[in-house]
Amino acid sequence: MFNDKTIEEIKEYFKTVQISSYCEYYDMLLSDSRKNVTAFAYQLQKREETYKKELNRIDNMIKAQSELFESDTFAVAGIDEVGRGPLAGPVVACAVIMSSGAKILHINDSKKLSEKMREELYIQIQENSLSIGIGIIDNARIDKINILNATKEAMKSAVSDLKIKPDALIIDAVKLPIDIIQKSPIKADEKYYSVAAASIIAKVTRDNMMKEYALKYPQYGFCENKGYGTAEHIEAIHKYGPCPIHRQSFIKNISLANSKTKGNSGEYDARQYLINKGYEIIRNNYSTQYGEIDIIFKDNEYLVFCEVKTRKNSEYGTGAMAVGLDKINKITKTALVYITENEISDMDIRFDIIEVYDDGKVVHIDNAFMAMA
Fold first, then answer.
1. Using CA of residue 67, residue 70, residue 71, residue 74, what is the dihedral sign?
2. Cα(56)–Cα(67) distance, rounded to whole angstroms?
3. Order of strands, sheet of 168-171, starting from the edge strand that comes earlier in the sequence
4. Going by C-beta distance under 8 Å and a sequence separation of 6 or more, which residues neighbour residue 256?
5. Per-residue buried b or exposed e for 278-311, using 16+ beta carbons within 10 Å of the residue's own CB
6. Going edge to edge, which strands form the sheet with 292-299?
């Protein structure tokens, strides 16, 4: 059958052959006098062994799942989450009810898979599931109720999002306050088929969200770090301050917040004020030979250069009163350097002052002074 074919043609032929059928061809290939053909036969045998090993692993995951409950006719939803640990972004939970008989190779804990493999499996799981539910809790809610409660809330939301009500749940090490039979084994995403599938859907869903956020906030590297506290991410927080999707309850534990001294506390509070008001911070502590600008941010069509003044109180004068002509001159020259370096020509320019007082009061004076010629 293969005597008149080149090795390239033989390899092309086997692209159409199911691995389970390889055994039908071994004798022919191994009896071929060409060494490269017999070598290819051994490659096929190794590929088949790997396939059988993976199929056995999947069978064991499915069997372990069915053995958790007395009936294997249950509609079992596997539940997992992604995003407990990042400094930014939401926590995402997924609930998956897989079709009976569906065996998707390589399903595993999402952390053990490459991004490419996760994305391929994401499509296959979508095609071979009875129902998929997603729950998303944003950073503001995480800050309000803490990450554990936010995780449970996301999981409950994912269960509610299912189009089929499950008879039972398998959840990775979490117990939910809902009236459905549930098991909460440790490392469930490694052991149980539906939970592993849920971990993949949750991971790809959250990663795609963080890629969208990366377009909006490119300075933080969300496309690469997905909001986790890498050295580069923490450095960006130091440089630019937090953005609207950062978890305030998380970043207070990094050196940015812990180093909140008298010298930088006002700037920190000013950044929080601007973020809460919805302004987009572009740069913090921009320095040139002429001086430093504390905060540069966008306010609609305006590019704003902001000076921050910290005061115990206004008994001896407001913070703005301390911004004299010499300071205005230095800010003007520094702003001009920034505008020139970044080739900015399509935005109006404004100079603001933010006063921060020890009692927590923040006073924002927009258009506080004009640029000096």
1. negative
2. 16
3. 129-137, 91-98, 76-82, 168-171, 181-183
4. 234, 237, 238, 242, 268
5. ebebbbbebeeeebebbbbbebeebbbbbbbbbb
6. 280-287, 292-299, 302-311, 348-357, 362-365
Dump pLDDT digits (tens) for 305-317: 999 998 888 776 7
- The amino acid sitting at 256 is L
Angle between helices 193-216 and 115-127 in degrees, nearest 10: 120
Could you write out the DSSP letters of every residue in 250-274?
A: HHTTSHHHHT--HHHHHHHHHHHHH
306, 367 in Cβ contact below 8 A? no
Instruction: Report residue 373's pLDDT band, with 50, 70 and 90 as the boundaries.
Output: low
Please, what are the domains in the chain?
7-64 (no CATH), 76-215 (3.30.420.10), 260-365 (3.40.1350.10)
> What is the average pLDDT across 194-223?
96
Computed over its alpha carbons, how large is the radius of gyration of the chain? Answer: 29
The single residue listed with the structure tokens 């320095």 is 287
Confirm if 302 and 349 have CB atoms less than 8 A apart.
yes
Residue 169 contacts residue 77 (beta carbons within 8 Å) = yes
